[in-house]
Amino acid sequence: xxxxxxxxxxxxxxxxxxxxxxxxNKNKTAKDNDPASVLVDSLPRDTLKLKEASNEADLPVNxxxxxxxxxxxxxxxxxNSTTKWDSIETQELWETTEGGEAKFYYQNGQLEKIATRLFxxxxxxxxxxxxxxxxxxxxxxxxxxxxxxxxxxxAAMKENNDTEAFDFGKAGIMEDRSYFANxxxxxxxxxxxxxxxxxxxxxxxxxxxxxxxxxxxxSLKKKK
Length: 224
Fold this sequence. Notes:
Elements: H1 2-21, H2 66-80, E1 87-93, E2 100-107, E3 110-119, E4 123-132, E5 135-145, H3 154-159, E6 172-181, E7 184-190, H4 200-223
Antiparallel strand pairs: 1-2, 2-3, 3-4, 4-5, 5-6, 6-7
């Protein structure tokens, strides 16, 4: 019973994603244009997806970092304001049970951005990698953590003597922004920890993780 529900939701999920890629939401509110808000489409709860950043400015930063991050922030705004790309290449990803995809965006023969989506029974993750002069410059990570798996309805809740069914309203959202220059992570902002600076050790760990993931994607592109 659970497996059949899972198959149904996965099929529905990807059908809506395919349709949603061709739709243009012309009635965005101010909140929709704020990258710090929840970036989702108005779809049924089990088919919600994170949207790519579009025509957005970056968040303000502390004064002492303003000059260092200025070219990174301007590049972010320039790239996500682009509406027409010379080419977009798509590749499937199978790092999770429900899979995902990576998109490579090109302008004037230059790779400008990579966007990845990963889907799971209990989460959804979307990451954008922005390049500046061919190097990693800015990374925007957004993820949802569901309170229960997507297929976990009221019947499953009763079967398992649980007190909750899947409820997107109870999903937690995490958003991270990472700023790179010359291969180094200069600054990081988390929507749940904007006031406290991160330790040097933590930044080094995150730098290694993000660069490894980025390099994997670059290798994947070269294999095509």
